[in-house]
């Protein structure tokens, strides 16, 4: 189950990055490491099986430049391949970006979804942010309960580590509250603007 979830996150990350621009495998690896490395250790060994599957499903294509020298072509074939998104790949990406269930609230799933929020509908963004906040509030309750049970039985360094974890989650909840407030304000402003434009009297050409 965990591997399947991780594969879904990698698929979203690859399709999202290729939507921004076509890339060589090496450049794609570097961008993925920056994106996924913040949330988990990214294994390069998982990238090429993912690309192979996306190619088989028609979601991406390989653009192979012509090499005049056959030996050189064999040596540099993989490094020269540029991966591009297909129309089916763009449609698949849009479907993935509308998913706002529990998988998008977990640490790595949330991070990758958040990285592509500029391509995500406003209502989906809000659902993901609220889901993430609920997940972290559950985590806060569990950490506080654990602290209450173990405070008297652990050494000062373990206690500091537990407090650090608690503060990190509390900080992210505050950050999410700010983002949610901003998203709601923007949506309300857009709704008011839409209503005022709808109610505005139209010029009948008199």
TrEMBL record:
<feature type="domain" description="Transcription regulator PadR N-terminal">
    <location>
        <begin position="14"/>
        <end position="94"/>
    </location>
</feature>
<dbReference type="InterPro" id="IPR005149">
    <property type="entry name" value="Tscrpt_reg_PadR_N"/>
</dbReference>
<keyword id="KW-0175">Coiled coil</keyword>
<dbReference type="Pfam" id="PF03551">
    <property type="entry name" value="PadR"/>
</dbReference>
<feature type="coiled-coil region">
    <location>
        <begin position="126"/>
        <end position="153"/>
    </location>
</feature>
<protein>
    <submittedName>
        <fullName>PadR family transcriptional regulator</fullName>
    </submittedName>
</protein>
<dbReference type="InterPro" id="IPR036390">
    <property type="entry name" value="WH_DNA-bd_sf"/>
</dbReference>
<dbReference type="InterPro" id="IPR036388">
    <property type="entry name" value="WH-like_DNA-bd_sf"/>
</dbReference>
<feature type="region of interest" description="Disordered">
    <location>
        <begin position="184"/>
        <end position="206"/>
    </location>
</feature>
<dbReference type="InterPro" id="IPR052509">
    <property type="entry name" value="Metal_resp_DNA-bind_regulator"/>
</dbReference>
């Amino acid at each position: 189950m965990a591997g399947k979830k991780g594969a879904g996150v990698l698929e979203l990350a690859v399709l999202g990055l290729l939507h921004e621009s076509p890339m060589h495998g090496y450049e794609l690896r570097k961008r993925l490491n920056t994106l996924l490395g913040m949330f988990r250790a990214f294994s390069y060994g998982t990238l090429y099986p993912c690309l192979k599957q996306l190619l088989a499903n028609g979601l991406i294509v390989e653009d192979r430049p012509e090499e005049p020298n056959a030996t050189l072509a064999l040596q540099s074939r993989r490094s020269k391949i540029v991966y591009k998104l297909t129309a089916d790949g763009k449609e698949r990406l849009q479907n993935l970006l509308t998913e706002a269930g529990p998988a998008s609230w977990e640490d790595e799933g949330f991070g990758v979804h958040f990285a592509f929020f500029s391509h995500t509908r406003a209502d989906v963004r809000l659902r993901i942010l609220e889901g993430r906040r609920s997940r972290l509030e559950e985590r806060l309750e569990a950490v506080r309960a654990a602290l209450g049970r173990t405070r008297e039985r652990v050494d000062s360094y373990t206690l500091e580590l537990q407090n650090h974890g608690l503060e990190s989650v509390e900080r992210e909840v505050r950050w999410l509250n700010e983002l949610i407030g901003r998203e709601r304000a923007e949506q309300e402003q857009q709704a008011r603007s839409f209503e005022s434009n709808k109610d505005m009297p139209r010029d009948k050409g008199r």
